[in-house]
Amino acid sequence: MSAFVWLNGRLCNLDEARISPLDHGLLVGDGVFETLVARQGRPFAAREHWERLVHSCGVTGLKAPPEADCLAAMEAVLKANLLNEARVRVTITSGDGPLGSERGDSEPTMLVSATALKPWPPTERVCLAPWTRNENGALAGVKSTSYGGNVRALAYARARGCGEALLANTRGELCEGTGSNVFVLMGGRLITPPLASGCLAGVTRRLVLKACSEAGIACFEEALPAEAALRCCDEAFLTSSTRDVHPVSQIGERALTPAGPVTGLVAAAFARLAEKMVIATGTPV
Questions:
Q1: Which of 62, 83, 116 is the last residue of a domain?
Q2: What is the CATH number of the domain that holds 65?
Q3: Which of 46, 123, 213, 267 could disulfide-link 258, Cβ–Cβ 3.0 to 4.6 Å?
């Protein structure tokens, strides 16, 4: 973990950082967050992540920080911790509140932290969790700090030798992972669940769709029966800010060809787009 964090407008040592015991982020999980990566010392896709943070704040009724303040806080944390390739997290909570669900009238809490980016294995094993996403819930599509369901689903996957759990929605359609979006190749068609499935509007998901469009790779946003899709797909991969395009080698007990040809094409297209985005920020490559 980083030695310095940004808390409520200032950089402070981790040992000195204090959040109130009455903060609703702690008491009831009333908050939102963003996870992104730093490439060569600068936050990657910072604008896209800030826009999603603003959306999450709007849905939950929280005050979003200005883009410039958010970027300055991330850059300060990266610099203070001497981090180049890093995992960065911005967390906003509703601040102090009563012990129940009703909010208080305090200012929001804003915390920015970072840690060195750890590599994922070359391929990932996944399984379908027995719980569902509620595509009609109040927090559908919001990157909320209420992550208890994700914690339990990931523990379920880890107990079965997998690194990620996939979830269906209440209609039995493929939705997302606990911290990732999912793409599958079925009948020669590359498909990812639509946002109407209840999945998070992943920034990397959006960039992968853009990269596919630029590379002439057809990709469809379509609802799919979860069990059938995972039983019949020829290739699958996960996307997230820390995973980029991450090939799936096994679904439950079913082995897939790791890093299949379509997955490879998508990974290369995304890498080209990411390189262009890094260059556009003024960071040398």
A1: 116
A2: 3.30.470.10
A3: 123
Burial of 144 (0-12, 13-18, 19+ CB in 10 A): buried
C-alpha to C-alpha distance for 145 and 112, rounded to whole angstroms: 14
- Does any domain span residue 131? yes
Sign of CA dihedral 226, 243, 144, 152: positive
- Is the whole model's pTM more than 0.85, yes or no? yes
Digitized pLDDT (tens) for each residue of the chain, 285 residues in all: 559 999 999 999 999 999 999 999 999 999 999 999 999 899 999 999 999 999 999 999 999 999 999 999 999 999 999 999 999 999 999 999 999 999 999 999 999 999 999 999 999 999 999 999 999 999 999 999 999 999 999 999 999 999 999 999 999 999 999 999 999 999 999 999 999 999 999 999 999 999 999 999 999 999 999 999 999 999 999 999 999 999 999 999 999 987 799 999 999 999 999 999 987 765 443
Tokens of 241: 């800010």
Residue 101 lies in a domain: yes
36: tokens are: 């992104």
CA 280/CA 274 separation, integer angstroms:
10
Let me know: does 260 contact 270? Beta carbons within 8 Å: no
What the block records as the tokens of 87 is: 């995992």
At position 259, the amino acid (one-letter code) is A
Answer positive or negative: Cα dihedral of 114, 119, 121, 122.
positive
Say how far residue 231 (Cα) sits from the centre of its chain: 25
Are 177 and 157 spatial neighbours (Cβ–Cβ below 8 Å)?
no
